[in-house]
Specification:
The protein has 406 residues and is α+β, with helices and mostly antiparallel strands. It has helices at 13-16, 92-101, 118-122, 131-169, 217-220, 248-254, 318-327, 329-335, 346-349, 359-397; strands spanning 2-4, 8-12, 17-21, 35-39, 42-47, 52-60, 69-77, 81-86, 125-129, 200-203, 206-209, 213-216, 221-225, 239-245, 258-259, 264-266, 282-285, 293-296, 306-311, 353-356. It folds into three domains: 2-127, DNA methylase specificity domains (Adenine-n6-DNA-methyltransferase TaqI, Chain A, domain 2, Alpha-Beta Complex); 130-191 and 359-406, Helix Hairpins, CATH 1.10.287.1120; 213-356, DNA methylase specificity domains (Adenine-n6-DNA-methyltransferase TaqI, Chain A, domain 2), CATH 3.90.220. A hairpin with a 3-residue loop joins strand 1 (2-4) and strand 2.
């Protein structure tokens, strides 16, 4: 050990913990068992027996190297992982955060399946303050982790509400017949077809509210593939212009939200750009991940693996059509031939049958959808802030850059 500033020392893992090998759980696996079984990525099964009874950190021996897990109690560790049993005088949760902050992938010594030898793991070094300082650091980071867990729980809750709401809103709609004074159900979901069959009509898409139409995507929008005069990968001179350019990954990542960012630009029309889609266009992927959607917040260019749906806003709301396409994802995905590169064509997308309420009802549906989506988006932003905060705190507190009061 060597001194580290005025408040801590630097220690190897061998001085902080005993690293034990895991064992195959095949003989003890039991889904009704009382004991958790941990692998390289966390909890993987239940067992009717245990290997260890302690606070420990599970670290991968093979496979996913950068996802250590903290455990406390009786548990089993599979044979592709280690259990680092923390030695007396050190705070286990602090050591967990040290290993979480350490680049465990850098210990990989294999050319095939990533793996870490125990000898290499033992040689990793960490700044080691006193036990009381370790405890305080762990408390701070655990508090942030709890906030992250709470925020994720809210995201999951709102996402579940949205899924249920979509199924109702986009099949039953909102009853806007009459006025609030003459219709007790005004502004609420229509009763289901089983409850009030007189409110529905039978169509090729099944039962829909009588006020709704059944139409096609091409009747309410212009549907066109992205296109380049030259593909950027073939002509480096295409880059560096003024036309934002996105790939399919940008659409998938946006997950139905707005695309406001881009990392590439293309040059002038006639050289690399032959089509640019306007603000409000729905970007739809037609290769690999079929029917992922997002809405453009600025004019952008696409490759031919992305389709632009430019909605006629006199007859349909952009958000309504975007969600309808998303709801048809399973149907569109089923149209893709089973090949190495799944894809669909404009001929699959343009004639897509859709339910279309009157504009007033579309707006009401979209308002409710947008409200719940805003809650999800707000919490996602909060989640990212918390993760960045945690990353900064780990870097400061676990390296000795910032001291804490015990």
């Amino acid at each position: 050990m060597g001194l580290c500033g005025s408040w801590g020392m630097r220690s190897q893992l061998k001085d902080l913990a005993v690293v034990e090998y895991g064992k195959s759980p095949n003989e003890v696996k039991d889904e009704r068992g009382d004991f958790p079984v941990y692998g390289t990525g966390g909890l993987v099964a239940k067992a009717n027996d245990y290997l260890f009874d302690s606070e420990a950190i599970i670290v991968a021996r093979k496979g996913t190297l950068d996802k250590p897990s903290y455990v406390n109690g009786k548990f089993w560790v599979i044979d592709t992982a280690y259990a680092a049993i923390v030695k007396e005088g050190n705070f286990p949760k602090w050591l967990y955060y040290c290993l979480l902050n350490f680049d465990l992938k850098s210990l990989n010594e294999a050319t095939g399946v990533p793996s870490i030898s125990r000898d290499f793991l033992y040689k990793t070094q960490f700044y080691t303050p006193s036990y009381e300082h370790q405890k305080k650091i762990a408390k701070i980071l655990t508090t942030v982790d709890k906030l992250i867990e709470q925020t994720q729980a809210l995201i999951d809750k709102y996402t579940a509400i949205k899924q249920g709401m979509m199924a109702d809103l986009f099949t039953r709609g909102i009853d806007l017949s009459g006025t609030p004074e003459t219709n007790n159900n005004y502004g609420r979901l229509r009763p289901s077809v089983e409850q009030a069959p007189e409110l529905y009509k039978e169509t090729e898409l099944g039962w829909v509210p009588k006020e709704w139409e059944v139409t096609t995507l091409q009747e309410v929008s212009r549907v066109e593939r992205g296109k380049f005069t030259h593909r950027p990968r073939d002509d480096s001179k295409c880059y560096g212009g003024t036309h934002p350019f996105i790939q399919t990954g940008s659409v998938t990542k946006a997950n139905g939200g707005f695309i406001r960012n881009y990392s590439q630009t293309l040059s002038e029309f006639g050289r690399s750009v032959s089509k640019e889609f306007p603000v409000g266009t729905i970007a739809v992927t037609i290769a690999a991940n079929i029917a992922d959607t997002a809405i453009l917040d600025m004019p952008m260019c696409f490759p031919d693996s992305v389709v632009g749906v430019v909605v006629n806003e006199d007859v349909a709301e952009v958000r309504f059509i975007e969600v309808i396409i998303k709801l048809n994802k399973p149907r569109l995905d089923a149209l893709a031939p089973l090949s190495a590169q799944k894809n669909i064509n404009l001929e699959d997308l343009r004639p897509l049958k859709i339910r279309l309420p009157p504009m007033k009802e579309q707006r009401q549906i979209c308002n409710r959808y947008n409200t719940i989506q805003k809650n999800i988006d707000t919490n996602i932003v909060q989640m990212e802030k918390l993760k960045l905060q945690k990353k900064g705190l780990m870097q400061d507190l676990l390296t000795g850059k910032v001291q804490v009061n015990a």
